[in-house]
Amino acid sequence: MISSPTSAAPRGHFAGRSLGDLAADLRRRRTTATDLARHALDAVARLDPLVNAFTTVSADEALAAARQADRELADGLDRGPLHGIPVAVKDVIMVAGRPVTMGSRHFAGHVPTTDADCVRRLKEAGAVLVGQTTTHEFAYGPTGDRSATGPSRNPRDPGRMSGGSSGGSAVAVAAGMVPLAIGTDTGGSVRIPAALCGTAGFKPAYGVLPTGGVFPLSKTYDHVGLLAASAEDCRIAYHALVTGGRPSAEHASRVGWLDPRTLFPVDARVLRSARTVLESSTGPLDELRVPQRVAEELREAYTAIQSGEAAAVHAERLAERPDLFDPEVLDRLRAAATVPAWRYVRGLKARPRLADAVDALFERHDVLALPTVPIVAPLIDRREVDLDGGRVGVRDALLALTSPWNVLGLPALTVPAGTVDGLPTGLQLICRIGEEHRLFETAARAVPRTDHESPLIGESHVH
Amino acid sequence: MISSPTSAAPRGHFAGRSLGDLAADLRRRRTTATDLARHALDAVARLDPLVNAFTTVSADEALAAARQADRELADGLDRGPLHGIPVAVKDVIMVAGRPVTMGSRHFAGHVPTTDADCVRRLKEAGAVLVGQTTTHEFAYGPTGDRSATGPSRNPRDPGRMSGGSSGGSAVAVAAGMVPLAIGTDTGGSVRIPAALCGTAGFKPAYGVLPTGGVFPLSKTYDHVGLLAASAEDCRIAYHALVTGGRPSAEHASRVGWLDPRTLFPVDARVLRSARTVLESSTGPLDELRVPQRVAEELREAYTAIQSGEAAAVHAERLAERPDLFDPEVLDRLRAAATVPAWRYVRGLKARPRLADAVDALFERHDVLALPTVPIVAPLIDRREVDLDGGRVGVRDALLALTSPWNVLGLPALTVPAGTVDGLPTGLQLICRIGEEHRLFETAARAVPRTDHESPLIGESHVH
Fold it and tell me: Can you give the pLDDT at residue A245?
């Protein structure tokens, strides 16, 4: 059922190289941070014309930071597992002195003067910032193909969307340009492109990675998240950025299978792919379901709150310079601006009740598993696809299985789960707040080492 | 400028009798709680046909509670200053076993099974609950003249509105039917009818009197408040219901005059009446102003948040049984349901900034003084009045000087400030959260004993 890629294409230096490997190599002097930065810059120069992962690359700054990292290591100052590691940062996260545009003409040439909190943590951890990655305009869209800087493209097939909104971050990791990228996730914006591009993506519990200095989409749901080749690399980066993470679980996590079809129709091959990769290690899984009414209320709470907050962020721009928006983003923001306040109020009020309803699913399970996205990557600009005998909206489909966990602020991890027609699929793991370690433990047990060696760019698909 | 009433009319037993007098009489055995309850019931029977203050009177329960209060006092159990005192409760506050209708046909015959938190406190303080007082339907209106149980009428002129939404509570006190009544105040619903009817009315800081068991209008702004003949009686009742009140101020409060005209046009005679009664004791006052932009943002934050929350409360009723609403209330709720979520979000976001802006007004003053309402009581059903050379909406006028303090949750007290054309006016005092004692101290210093002996019902005014 899990099809194999059929042709190969150029990949960056970091394809197949884990953060653990890189850290070991750095400390054994087999490589240097400067070498790694150069490899990243070379890969970007070579591959980015094909996939448009980056909006800005800051070679001089990256090399300077890398030399500093090398000096520190030589002097015995070791900042931990991200020390000297090239990292890409989504173009909605402020980095002092670098152009950060939100993928929008409204912010063309914008250069922040202060680092976002998560960027400060990256720098303190010794990471080397390579550049800014393409975002769907204002992070307002899961397709990744509406941006003032052009669409980010899926490395498995550049005619297909990367997913979004952290599309460039997923592409940069999937193409081996960097081993780690930072994204944001309001309804799935880390996990969706990770799944469509074949990387791991991790959204911690709400608020654990600080959102200070991140351009807001919807404050109630905005999360900062991590993209890397594997769950293990996400875990390493997470613990490097967040103190106080818990050690490994005291017992093997009990994993339940959450039937995704009460949330949205799912491509049967995608569903089977995700389930098979999990069951091959866990054996038969208990079946769980989100009650239909809870599923509907989760969707409504997501839409009402996200719409109200997004329209509030952009009210002046909508009134004064609508022409600077991408037309589709403009239409969607205008629609969001009509969502009535009473639905927002109801959404906020529903959340504790919905949290209780979902918490009940964890009564006998530590981790819930389901596909990350119900389809594989559609062609760029495609807005409807056939699914399960009907037509569905691409945006609705992309968000359907990820956004419920943003409503509740639950930790969520996506890991590669094989391919369908040569296109990646994702397995999503969800847990209670404070139990993030169970996601990593489950992923380590259930999912074999990512198929680092599989080919990327250049496959041909029926469009 | 402060005109005198010109004719007399029947008044209830409690006109001119303070809580302090009543408490002393009870303990000196000059009266009993049973006598007081009978006086209240007699006054209601005699006067309520003229003013419609009450929706339900529970004579048997009141007399039983009064006898119990008498037994306790005889046995040496003294529950404090409200022990044996007849109290009326607004018809949106749950009282177990009594009909509570929200002034709406939607709740005709509704009998709650549990007391609201504030009712439980009243009972624990020994108060004798006489009955439910008329509310504007669902407390959604400051005029007090739209209710399934008919309009409450101003005791000074029953052709005029009481103000609302706690209209019945103000009327019951103003007409001497009870010495104390409980109301709710979301934008001025305690203070407005208090001012128009010539009583005192006190809204503590947000959340100090619990709203549990009160039918919601707008959670962010809903307050429980007290109505009594004088500020001193409000103070006594407040301290009987809330523990931990601070003692008298360490220095005489510094009172500033807040020019109300950046908030709304004000009848010059009403303005002079309020200012004169204050200046006669304080001497010349410093002039302060709410900056125009702050005034506008306060109004917007009030409207957006209150509309969204009110429409959320009533969404099912609006969809399923619109016919059961009063037509004006229905129109207003339908309009509220169209307020977009982004304005709600902006309103919430503005509040800390607005709190800072208003806090700056307190830099050199402990108490801000302004009129409570910019006009005297209009005729019932009147929706526009001439003011300051133009036409203004009655609802806008009634709410204009009170609602800003709900946005910020500040303590606010209105006290009678003489009459204009024989109709009462109010002086409103505002302070910082936690400084409620300054309001009472200022009122005691500035305002002479309420004109308890002035006549009420039966004056004739030019309509």
Answer: 53
The angle at the Cα of A54, spanning A50 to A56, to the nearest 5 degrees, equals 130
Nearest to B431 by CA among B377, B361, B331: B361
H-helix or E-strand containing A170?
helix A167-174
Same domain, B177 and B326: no
pLDDT digits (tens, 9 = 90+) for B184-232: 999 999 999 999 999 999 999 999 999 999 999 999 999 999 999 999 9
Residue A167 maps to a domain = yes
d(CA B333, CA B139): 12
Asked if residue A165 has a cis previous peptide bond (ω within 30° of 0), the answer is yes
Q: Looking at the structure, tell me whether residues B238 and B152 fall in a common domain.
A: yes
Judged by DSSP in three states, B307 sits in helix
Determine, for residues B341 and A311 on separate chains, whether the beta-carbon distance falls below 8 Å: yes
Residue-wise pLDDT for B338-353, tens only, equals 999 999 999 999 999 9
Identify which of B72, B87, B69 has the alpha carbon closest to the alpha carbon of residue B33: B69
Distance between CA B18 and CA B200 in Å, rounded?
12
pLDDT at B46 over 90: yes
Which residues does B81 contact at the CB level (< 8 Å), separation at least 6? B19, B20, B23, B125, B236, B237, B239, B240
Q: Decide: A372 and A402 in contact? Cβ < 8 Å.
A: yes
Catalytic residue, from A18, A104, A162, A165: name it: A165
CB A148 within 8 A of CB A103: yes
Interface predicted TM-score of the whole assembly (ipTM), two decimals: 0.90
Q: B312 vs A341: CB contact, 8 Å cut-off?
A: yes
Q: Who contacts B352 (Cβ-Cβ below 8 Å, separation ≥6)? A: none
Same domain? B280 vs B231: yes
Confirm whether A458 is domain-assigned: no
The span from the CA of A392 to the CA of A397, in Å, is 7
Which of the residues of B are catalytic?
Answer: 90, 165, 189
Does residue B390 sit within a domain? yes
What CATH number is given to the structural domain containing A432? 3.90.1300.10
pLDDT surpasses 80 at B268: yes
Number of domains in chain B: 2
The residues of A whose Cβ lies within 8 A of any Cβ of B are 304-305, 307-309, 311-312, 315, 336-346, 349
Q: What is the mean pLDDT of residues B444-448?
A: 74
- pLDDT at residue B245 in the model: 53
H helices of B373-463, where? 394-400, 403-408, 436-446
User: For chain A, which ranges sit under pLDDT 50?
Assistant: 1-9, 449-456, 458-463
Residue A368 lies in a domain: yes
Nearest CB among B308, B342, B346 relative to A342 is that of B308
The pLDDT value recorded for residue B252 is 84
Specify the 3-state DSSP secondary structure of B350: helix
Percent of chain B at pLDDT above 70? Answer: 93
Residue B388 has a pLDDT of 86
Asked if A344 lies within 8 A of B339 by C-beta distance, the reply is no
Q: Is A13 exposed, middle or buried (0-12, 13-18, 19+ CB in 10 A)?
A: buried
DSSP B91: T
Identify the pLDDT of residue A2. 34
> For residue A84, how far is the Cα from the chain centroid?
22
Helix/strand/coil for A22: helix
Q: Could you tell me the residue range of the domain that residue A202 belongs to?
A: 19-293+349-446
The DSSP line for A37-69 is: HHHHHHHHHHHHHHH--EEEE-HHHHHHHHHHH
- Whether B218 and B240 map to the same domain: the answer is yes
Phi (first) and psi of residue B315, to 5 degrees: -55, -45
* Residue B304 near residue A341 (C-beta atoms within 8 A): yes
Domain check: are B232 and B278 in the same one? yes
Question: CB count, 10 Å around CB of A441?
Answer: 22
